[in-house]
Design goal:
403 residues; mainly beta; 2 domains; ten-stranded antiparallel sheet; six-stranded antiparallel sheet; 6 helices; binds alpha-D-galactopyranose
């Protein structure tokens, strides 16, 4: 599992990673392959060997070691950090078999700690916003430190994305991945109750990246909203705008927001608006329309009320993104009631990512499956309360493919 290559080189590809003949062959020999040969190879390596390795990634200022786990099915290779249980890289072939990293991130820990707008992170205790950081539960009022104007975003100033999670390798004959666990003490970031969260990321031989969330609380009831904040550009990280990506999003309604991106409480129909992606539509087609919600969000930064039918392991189809030039797709299924579709509006070119390219506005999208934002302050929204003795579970699957 160890070698003496510099870290950048080590992280390059499954071939360099020494992940074994099947993985290295599948990933490195696809470069100039014809579509037919790739399809044949994909079929072959789709049943390829599942492999995983662990390498040191960095050390926090407090002296805690952070590891990177890299797992592959011979075609798709995922790298994840124990920092924030973060998806660092997703390397997957395009329709001609060319493998690129399609996920935004950094190659070093200090950049994650200082700059990251939640790239690939597991977000909690409460993903998305809580108005003024305040909510009342069982007659007690709780205050979360605000970090987004007057509101709390993604768990407050130091959310789960900035914690080092414990990692345990998961490997069966069907899947490979990592189970990450973080215990959040009672009162951390103002939230009540000691919350134990285990988030298990596994890759199967069909390119399904499955995320299983499980949480229990001790001592007091709490609220929670766990998600992952991976950003994708399906043409490859750092290659420019996602305006041309085509999105199909199964939602009849969305939750309009005020100027602070807090839901007004209304569930508004998408029909006849730039928020209707029930028919596949390029993301950039209407993003500059003068719809007031697009002005508030500087683009799409809204929670959609998912309305697809369960059709995949009991999970509902939520969305499919397709990049027509290279042909990559990512399809999302989830048990969650909502998803925040964010068109990378706040990326402003101020830093460079893992491939040394600046990320500018609209260079990536995130699709954060979740409960609705600010649910603790909206009794009409599906509840985000978790009580001692209860177990919270949810599942989201990202499926990588080509079309
Ligand atoms: C979420 C929010 C956005 C933005 C990003 C992180 O998607 O809804 O407004 O804050 O996180 O930059």
């Amino acid at each position: 599992m160890s070698d003496n290559l510099p870290r950048r080189q080590v992280l390059r590809t499954a071939g360099a990673l020494g992940l074994g003949a099947a993985a290295a062959g599948a990933l490195s020999s696809t470069a100039d392959a014809s579509p037919d040969r790739v399809a044949a190879m994909n079929a072959q390596h789709g049943h390829g060997k599942l492999e995983i390795r662990k390498d040191p990634f960095g050390t926090t200022p407090e002296g805690v070691g952070v590891d990177v786990y890299t797992f592959t099915n011979g075609r798709t290779t995922i790298s994840m950090l124990t920092w924030g249980a973060t998806i660092q890289r997703v390397e997957t072939p395009d329709r001609r078999g060319r493998v690129e990293n399609i996920s935004l991130g950094f190659d070093n820990l200090p950049d994650y700690a200082a700059l990251s707008p939640y790239f690939g992170a597991t977000v909690g205790r409460y993903g998305n916003r809580i108005a003024k950081g305040k909510f009342t539960l069982d007659g007690h009022t709780y205050q979360i430190p605000v970090n987004n104007g007057e509101n709390a975003l993604h768990g407050g100033t130091i959310g789960f994305d900035k914690k080092v999670w414990k990692a345990k390798v998961v490997k069966t004959d069907k899947v490979v991945g990592v189970a990450f666990t973080y215990v959040s003490p009672d009162g951390e970031m103002g939230f009540p109750g000691e919350l134990t969260s285990t988030v298990t990321y596994t890759l199967d031989k069909q390119d399904n990246l499955r995320i299983d969330y499980l949480a229990t609380v001790a001592g007091k009831p709490t609220v929670l909203n766990l998600t992952n904040h991976v950003y994708f550009n399906l043409a490859g990280e750092g290659t420019g705008s996602i305006d041309g990506h085509v999105l199909e999003l199964k939602a009849a309604k969305y939750t309009p927001v005020d100027a602070g991106l807090i839901p007004t409480g209304e569930l508004a129909p998408v029909a006849g608006t730039p928020f209707d992606f029930n028919t596949p539509t390029a993301i950039g087609k209407r993003i500059r329309d003068d719809h007031p919600q697009l002005v508030i969000g500087r683009g799409y930064d809204h929670n959609f009320v998912l309305s697809g039918k369960p059709d995949h392991d009991g999970l509902r189809f939520a969305a499919r993104f397709w990049e027509p030039t290279e042909g990559r797709t990512v399809t999302v299924h989830t048990s969650q009631p909502g998803a925040q579709f964010y068109s990378g509006n706040f990326l402003d070119g101020t830093f460079q990512g893992i491939g040394n390219k600046s990320y500018r506005q609209g260079d990536a999208f995130a699709f954060e499956t979740q409960h609705f934002p600010d649910s603790p302050d909206h009794p009409t929204f599906p509840s985000t309360v978790l009580r001692p003795g209860q177990t919270f579970t949810s599942t989201t699957i990202y499926t990588f493919g080509t079309k």
